[in-house]
Automatic annotation (TrEMBL):
PANTHER family: RIBULOSE-5-PHOSPHATE-3-EPIMERASE
Chain's role: Catalyzes the reversible epimerization of D-ribulose 5-phosphate to D-xylulose 5-phosphate.
Pathways per UniProt: Carbohydrate degradation
EC number: 5.1.3.1
Active-site residues, record numbering mapped to chain: D32 (proton acceptor), D171 (proton donor)
Keyword list, A-Z: Carbohydrate metabolism, Cobalt, Isomerase, Manganese, Metal-binding, Zinc
Protein name as catalogued: Ribulose-phosphate 3-epimerase
Family per record: Belongs to the ribulose-phosphate 3-epimerase family.
SUPFAM superfamilies, A to Z: Ribulose-phoshate binding barrel
Source organism of the structure: Acholeplasma brassicae
Keyword Zinc: yes
Length: 210
């Protein structure tokens, strides 16, 4: 299982140093973009992220928790992210996924804990990533919702049955114990924010959950 530390819990006054402190063991850098409308919190936008590629070789994994992602795909395409993930609860899902694809960026689709997997089904054949939220999106440091692993198991089953190509990512409440459950359920990439950034030795924490 790959690990994508979320920089949401990093100290933004020294972001470069913070990224250097985790890049040795990180498979991706997970970037949580929040608009204060889709979720009750505001984080950062493409301007803040635009220089990341100059300071790190770790591939970027952008998670847009915003209501109208279509208006911002051009800006986020400019940061050179490997994946851009939008939410199925957002506006203009199909058009936005097509736009992401037109930039040669891998398409991700996420769902909130209360959203049924049925909502994803029309899009699964065109996705490179499905992101299962294991907390209510908006804040780091919440507890893992173990019932969301049923969605992971169902996504594994659907991928086998229909030969889909997506990887399965999980986001929220990942630590040493919950990462093990996620891996057993079939998760390919686990996002970990507070567990990594609050650890004394961050690379050791990532190695531990791997
Ligand atoms: C929540 C974000 C997560 C969050 C994870 O809305 O999407 O990526 O930062 O943080 P932890 O690992 O602390 O739950
Ligand atoms: Zn996220």
């Amino acid at each position: 299982m790959k690990i994508a530390p979320s920089i949401l819990t990093a100290d933004f006054l020294k972001l470069e140093e913070e990224i250097k402190s985790i890049e040795q063991e990180s498979d991706y850098l997970h970037l949580d973009v929040m608009d204060g409308h889709f979720v009750p919190n505001i984080s950062f936008g493409s301007h803040v992220l635009s220089g990341l590629k100059r300071i790190t070789n770790v591939p970027l994994d952008t998670h847009l928790m915003i209501s109208n992602p279509i208006d911002y795909i051009k800006d986020f395409a400019g940061i050179n992210s490997s994946f851009i993930t939008i939410h199925v609860e957002a506006n203009k899902v199909k058009e936005t996924l097509d736009l992401i694809h037109s930039y040669g960026i891998k398409r991700g689709l996420s769902l909130k804990p209360k959203t049924s997997i049925e909502e994803l089904k029309p899009y699964l054949s065109e996705l490179e990533l499905v992101l299962v939220m294991s907390v209510e999106p908006g804040f780091g440091g919440q507890s893992f919702m173990v019932d969301q692993l049923d969605k992971v198991r169902e996504l594994v089953r659907l991928r086998d049955e229909h030969h889909y190509n997506y990887v399965i990512e999980i986001d929220g409440g990942i630590n040493f114990n919950t990462a093990k459950l996620a891996k057993e359920a079939g998760v390919d990439i686990a996002v970990a924010g507070s567990y990594v950034f609050n650890a004394k030795d961050r690379n050791e924490a990532i190695r531990g959950i791997k």
